[in-house]
## 1
Amino acid sequence: MNGDTLPIGELARRTGLTVKTVRLYSDRGVITPAERTPAGYRRYAPDAVARLSFVRTLRELGLGLDTIRRILDRELPLEEVAARHAAALDVQIGVLRLRRAVLTNVAARTPTTPEEIRRMHQLARLTTAERRRLVDEFLDSVFADLDEGPVPSAIRRSMTPELPDDPTQAQADAWVGLAELSLDPDFRDAVRRLAEEHARRASSPPLPDVVALAHIHVGAALAAGIDPGSPEADPAVAALAAHSARTLARPDDHELHRLLLHHLERADDPRRDRYFELLAVINDWPPPVPHTPVIHWSVAALRARAA
């Protein structure tokens, strides 16, 4: 018997594994005894220590014993296995980030109903294809029956989230928030109304984008901190009304102001800003300019003058 060989207990001690684990690896062909004693006990060559240490590392990375044996026997290139495993881990990391986002949202809510927890749990476990179906179903409900054309198609593209396979934690958090918004029937109705407004603006005669005009004409007054009900706000309101009157080819009168107020009040939904903020995070776009502050200022200014 070779005195350089190691009994199974000593091999286990040197590698930090249990005797049971070493025996399992030996039975599966990952390591092979160099010899057996007359009593049938296994003894291993000294290089089994390094081999088992490598096996332990690969096991901690999640590789199966059959794959490890083939790597050690040079049946599989290690770099190929590592690349495949790294890709699989990327997917798992993405899933874990989504689950962390769900748990963070649950922890931030007091109280949280069982129904909310169930829904958020489902959101966290959606596959890529299921996430796509959720988004498509939401956008289909928004754009259903609208005429096909460049305007509705462009709006739909601008509202479509594309969550990467390996999202950052911020993207995972944003996805959960956006998915919750898309499941809100009231929000769907509000976005549907917004899409209809855009479709009407593309019709003949065109309607003005009142929110866009408000950004142009009242943005500076808002930034300057001017009270919308004060005389200092008059030039901004007058410019907004005049531009709208030119676009509509109608008088700049009380009825026009009433129409502007109606459109701005319909557009006043902070959830829309929230949707596009989350969308920008998911798609790695620049942060959008929020509409809500300009809308609130314009509505207050028009109401003050109507009174």
## 2
Amino acid sequence: MRTPGAVLRIAPLPLAVLLALAGCAPTVATPTGPASGTGAPPASAGFARPDPADVPFLTAMVAHHDRTRVIAVAAAGRITDAELRTLVAAVDATEADELATMRRWLAAATPPGDPAGPDAHSGHTGHDAHRPPSPTTDPDLARLSSAAAERFDAVLIDVLTAHQGRAVALARAHRPVAVGPEVRDLADRIERSRTAQIRLMAGLPAARAG
């Protein structure tokens, strides 16, 4: 029996467990089949191509994931907190898997012989695939590039929190109107996992230090 005023202490979960719950653990190969994990699964045999109504969301999300990977590259070698380093690596691995799946879907949605590629069908103009973001054109990358070593983790958390928040907003907006069940499932998974990632980052020491 607890004495009056006693505080129930719950041991924090290991970061690896939290990453899995957040949907951002790296995929691992299994002896019985292809890679398994929390990244987007391969398209099912019955999902030949996405509905045109889902293509703008997929293309916008590909642009978002591309930028996540650019941020991860910009952060490489500069993160000092081990938990944040693990989180960023896991996010990058998960989004690489999702990118591969979404690009397969978009390639299937592109009419044969269309020289413009999948981006032509999205109407999304916020990302130029031929001109990747750089510190001279992207304010967030400029912040990371100029951040002092002792402030880098805090700046990275701020940048990634806002960035993943945009993914949550995109996924939340598209999920109710998604036509393909596979796309709806992806939107639901992105909304839940990125929300969990934001919560994880908010609990890291650099975020608490401000």
